[in-house]
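Hi all, long-time lurker, first post. I run a small reading group and we've been trying to get comfortable going from sequence to structure in the token notation. Rather than ask abstract questions, I figured I'd post a concrete chain and ask someone more experienced to write out its structure so we can walk through it together at our next meeting. Sequence below, copied exactly:
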Amino acid sequence: MKRYRPHILVVIALAVVLSTGWHSSLRNALTDLRFAWQSRIASGDVVVVAIDTPSIDQVGVWPWPRRLHADLLHRLEAAGAQDVAFDIDFSTPSDTASDEAFLTALREAGGSTILPSFKQPTPNGGATHINRPLKPLSNQSWPAVVNVAIEPDGLVRRYPVGEKLGDVQMPSMAIVLAGQDVNRRPPFLIDFSIQSTSIPSVSYVDVLRGDAAALEKIRGKKVIVGATALELGDRFSVPNGRIVAGPVLQALAAESVLQNRMLHWTSDVGMIAGLGLICLLMMYSWRRVAPGVRVAILIAAGAAIELTAVLVQQHWPFVIDTSLFHIAIVAYLTAIALDEIDFRSLLGRIAESRFHRIAMSLGDGLVCTDEEHRITVWNPGASAIFGYMPTEMIGRPFETLCASPAEAGTKTFAIRDAARQALLVPGGAVVVEFEGRRKTGETFPVEASFSGWQGTDGFQYGAILRDISVRKREAERVRYLAEYDALTGLANRNTLQAALVGLIAAAERRSSKVVLLVFGLDGFQQINDMLGHSAGDLVLRAVAERLRAESDSKAIIARLSGDEFAIALDCASEPIGAFAERIARAFEAPLATGTRQHRVRISMGVAVYPDGGQNADDLLSNGHLALTKAKLTRRGSHVIFESAIRQELESRLTLESELALAADRGEFELFYQPQVRLIDGSLVGAEALIRWRHPVRGYVSPGEFMPVVNTSALSERIASWVMETAARQARAWELSGNAVRVAINLSPSQLQSGDLAHSVAELLKATGLAPSLLEIEVTEDILLHDEARVLDIFKRIQQLGVRILFDDFGTGYASLSYLKKFPLDGLKIDRSFVLGLLANSDDAAIVGSTIGLSKQLGLTVVAEGIENRATADFLVSMGCEEGQGYFFGRPMPAEAFEKQFWPAEIEAVSAA
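-- Answer (accepted) --
Happy to help. Here is the structure in token form:
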């Protein structure tokens, strides 16, 4: 059996190769190499008319009208081309005139034109679709198949003589072009030793325009018309790394037929006979001749067989498959090597050398010990970790690397314990951690993977050592970031939620309460916008420090997100309201951040377990709802959560949704309240006031929906609609001969986004309204933010000729300073002073002072809320010029306003 072992190995190798089909890849590679070694020139009888990039650049985007193909066919026929094959799809109709022109050209060509048919897979994996030329076109041409088979390696080698399309056996294009018949012959191998670059080619556009040199090339030749431009994608991969266009591939196939180079594989009988001869030769010589002679015989046999295959393929249309010969030769060479080499010794030396190389190149420390745990191997990685050189450590006990315990009673790490564990663990390895000590005396955490094995010198141990001090620090850092806010050092949301769970559990046992305060900083976004995020970060740190200073040591302080913070504690040592107010008062003092001081107010939402939530999620959610309520109604103070708050905010959300639909449906209207000259009651203007006609509720009070509009995303949209609608109404009145000054209330959103002055200018231009008939009323809250920008916008609006009035004068904190800072044309005295004018001397004094101050500053004064003649007369006596109120007219639709203030004109128009 031992005598025939090499030959059995060869037979097994051949059987494996044959069963898996691996030899086909080698066969193809050898054939492709022979094509590369040989080189043939094309006969020149086949010319490619190329639809190339220059043609596309001059003619236009593909596909082209078929009238161009008709013109081309006329040119080719006139130039004396023998046969013309189009590698172009003609299976679908084009425009009727082009199809008719191409049909006429085919008819005049007299049946010498070949049109393609091909199979095309459907996108969803269904039955293959067959594309044939249109019936009228196919009646005047020769049919031919252009499909080629792509092999598993992505290359095209074989070319079919013909193919069955439906019930018809159709010849391939190259076969028809070469004048051959099908006769059900099998596919042949294209001779890729024919150089594709030697196939004559002319540009489509050159033939089309009658270029003499191009037409001379095709005289008396067979012509293939097809796409060669890269952008058209008709490309195929062929042997030896080449990529050719579809028409060039058809031309190579036609050249193979014309040059009698339709290659076919030789019979397998010769291969089997050759393999048998090699096996007999090796069996005879195996023990009779030296291994070197056998190697020389095998190499010579392989070279001779391959040389024979090259010569045969060069002179005859046959391809000899030598793949199995070469596989058998390689198998025999391997058998000779296995028979002669002492692999056991070689493997041992290789393993030893490999272990040494790995040990010395490891970045980790590698330490091996003998049975007594004395160090025998010390690699550079261990030197880098501990600082000892190999000469200092070889022969010393492993425990030299271990630090003494820092705490009394703690056991020192012993390698014996780890070694015993390694022997008990499946796989023979155990990972432990211990405190190591460097040569400098520094201690650090070490991770060691211990294993043991039986060596020639007794039982030995090995340990791979890693310095995990950095990993430990990173793990601590990751754990810290998972639990705390990186900027302020406070607990984060996850930690707060976990703490709330514990506090609620403890409170449930003691029947006590848990208080959660959620804070929001008022105006923090302005600090970020004006001073940058670095300044904002300093403010957040200062807020965190103040919360720490004001809170109980047992309280949990957290930063939830952005400018939101929270405090949670099991029960307050003082009443909840008092505690919240104390925290709020703590922020009345400015926050010091470097050289700056910032005044920051906080709004608070308070949720108390169990009334304000039964679990941590509910407390956080309800605390946020209370904070939202505080920001809307009690900025700088606190709101304790009640169930009504959720209902109120849900109602607000519902109202916002209804307002958005109202804007889409056009449910908003403008009413106009007259403004009169008090001395004679004549009309001078009108204030535009928005109204909402709800489809179910009827008119909704502005006091109900405008606070929601002004604090929602709809604010700018609705405010722009009000301004445009009021301006167009004023223009309509102006055109009717009744020039009325219309006042609109400015929304804060109109100043915060975009360029208001530019918008006003565009509106005046679009409507044609005289600027003096538009008046803008502003309130103090609009002037609070970014005074420099607001001042610039107001100056530009006044330059347009539009008036600006200060609305609700006297109700704010800094109204007098605004009269000095901002360019104003007048002011409106708030109705709260006018209503008590007759009964309250203080109100009378304030109104009188305001009127006097306005006259000195050159400002117009408009009094709001006049509800009777006595009040109007009193204001006239004080010097007030204009007023508005229910006494002169309530807000009314434009039609009612017109009927009341210029009825004569309306009656005249009606009569006309």
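A couple of things your group might point at:
Residues 291-315 form the longest helix (25 residues).
The chain is about 45% helix and 20% strand.
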